Automatic annotation (TrEMBL):
<feature type="domain" description="HTH cro/C1-type">
    <location>
        <begin position="16"/>
        <end position="70"/>
    </location>
</feature>
<protein>
    <submittedName>
        <fullName>Transcriptional regulator</fullName>
    </submittedName>
</protein>
<dbReference type="InterPro" id="IPR001387">
    <property type="entry name" value="Cro/C1-type_HTH"/>
</dbReference>
<dbReference type="InterPro" id="IPR010982">
    <property type="entry name" value="Lambda_DNA-bd_dom_sf"/>
</dbReference>
<dbReference type="InterPro" id="IPR043917">
    <property type="entry name" value="DUF5753"/>
</dbReference>
<dbReference type="Pfam" id="PF13560">
    <property type="entry name" value="HTH_31"/>
</dbReference>
<dbReference type="Pfam" id="PF19054">
    <property type="entry name" value="DUF5753"/>
</dbReference>
Length: 286
């Protein structure tokens, strides 16, 4: 169990070590190519030290890595700008967003698939502005209104991943409590129900409801998110949110356990069609 930056360093280092191996270079030969000491390459590969995006680009050039998607992902793991040198949009909110949230947004922006169980609120990628506003005010009581609005804008900007080409594939399991909790009041909740129905019609989005009638289930452990990435399955990670931080689980056994849990919950949840009918019924009564 690690915090986001440590996970990113280790995963990035492991991938760079694998790419060096594919290039047929020793760590000393790689260091010579980029003008470094061999110990710097070793520290990066073992995740003992951070690495700048510019250093990642140097290593990728040395290893003749040309795949643009892979290059962009690895640069993002280093916390850097994209291949054109442009800042990622969340850099503009550095003074507002805690590092753990920036790390999560960075990983989410590069993921190809997200699977999430939500037991308390609608996931941020599907929230309406009014719903996001109510959640933010409740979670961060006393925050100045301009900061609340800025955080809502961050939440909405994150949703662009669903409109990317290719779009993020999103699978969501919602506990029935999420749909019945009067976040923001009846009108806000009714608008959120309509948004869920709109999202569920997108080919890349799958929404299922886990009804109270399902009884006890493994999801009682709480909400979690599984992030998966293109090209590199070893980068997959489970994210658990806490009040003041997020924790990342990266061991293969952890990923397997949470993947199995998600698959089990999908089996207990209503089908996609029945889930949409369930949400529509609640929306009519909101």
């Amino acid at each position: 169990m690690q915090y986001g930056p440590a996970v990113r360093r280790r995963k990035l280092g492991a991938e760079l070590r694998a790419l060096r191996g594919l290039a047929g270079l020793t760590s000393g030969e790689a260091a010579a190519r980029v003008g470094w000491h061999q110990s710097k390459v070793s520290r990066i590969e073992t995740g003992r030290s951070g690495v700048r995006a510019s250093d990642v680009r140097l290593l990728l050039e040395a290893y003749d890595v040309e795949d643009p998607q892979l290059r962009e992902l690895l640069v993002a793991l280093a916390g850097g700008d994209d291949e054109t040198g442009r800042h990622h949009w969340w850099h503009a909110y550095r003074g507002l967003l805690p590092p753990a949230y920036r790390d999560f947004i960075s990983l989410e922006s590069q993921a190809c698939r997200v699977r999430t169980l939500e037991t308390t609120v609608v996931p941020g990628l599907l929230q309406t502005p009014d719903y996001a506003r109510a959640v933010t005010r409740a979670a961060l009581g006393g925050l100045p209104e301009e900061q609340v609005e800025a955080l809502v804008q961050v939440r909405l900007a994150r949703q662009d991943v669903l409109r990317n080409n290719p779009p993020l594939r999103l699978s969501v399991i919602l506990d029935e409590a999420v749909l019945r909790r009067q976040v923001g009041g009846p009108e806000v909740l009714a608008g959120q129900m309509r948004r869920l129905l709109e999202a569920a019609r997108l080919p890349q989005v799958r929404v299922q409801v886990l009804p109270f009638a399902a009884g006890e289930h493994i999801g009682l452990i709480g909400s979690f998110v599984i992030l998966s990435f293109p090209n590199i399955s070893d980068l997959d990670v489970v994210v658990l949110d806490h009040l003041t931080s997020s924790l990342y689980l990266e061991r293969k056994e952890d990923l397997k356990a949470y993947t199995n849990a998600f698959n089990s919950l999908q089996g207990k949840a209503l089908s996609v069609k029945d889930s949409m009918d369930f949400i529509a019924g609640l929306g009519d009564g909101a």
